[in-house]
Write the structure tokens for this entry.
Amino acid sequence: MKYRVSAVQYELADINSFAEFAAQTTHYVRNAAEYGVQALLFPEFLTTQLLSIGDVQGKPLTIDQLPDFTEQYEQHFKSLAADYGIHIIGGTHVVRSKDGKLRNTAYLFDPDGRVRTQAKIHLTPTEVEEWNMSPGDGLEVFDTPFGTIAMLTCYDIEFPEIVRMARAKGADVIYCPSCTDDRHGFYRVRYCAHARAVENQVYIVTTGTTGSLRRVDFMRANYGQAAVITPNDIPFPPRGIMCEGTENHDMLIVADLDLQLLHDVRQSGSVTTWRDRRTDLYPDWS
């Protein structure tokens, strides 16, 4: 099976209304539709842009006010997915759970109106200490017309166990929305994405934020690049990079994923890392 994916290098900039956010995100979806894209990835903390709108005194909103936009965010992306017939991984949005906890949550919007979510499982010190967030407590994989996927956000990709769990549950493609403020953070995520692709013989589709929210704490600097990462084997590019964007530019990348190639290399590749794991010595995490 083949299908076309795209990832957005989303340029954050201060805005004055939800309508501006809606116009910018619609632009990317419309652009992806022109390329015949079937699945589109936005980056982590996409909706922090809304905090720059500010309150009636002109002060920027705080992270605990971001859940107030949840209904608008969900309705907007549900409409985009339906109108353009694209499965949209809408980056992440901060939601407040029934127990009052803030969770950084990835969203999957299907064209048929379904909305599915995955809370970030591993949180950075900033998320915990500055934004008082709580981690997700479980991993889900999601069936789509293009096979099974998982959504693992930024720091999650740095933990081999959780990606192994996703593969054991059947995921062939890991979508990794990310947000990093400097090269150190960016390369941590990027190098780990390559490792997870080799270990599990999966595709990793990743992207990050660019630009700057000058009025929003901890979002004033962003360093991002989108990429579609593959196993390192003969059917794939030698560097394991199917495509990548220009760092810190406002743009889309597009690639065609061939799921059959993953199944082929798992059975008879130059190495068969998924088949050769030693579950007699270490757990399968399934």
Q: What stands out?
A: The mean pLDDT is 96. The first strand starts at residue 2 and ends at 12. The CA atoms of residues 33 and 84 lie 6 Å apart.
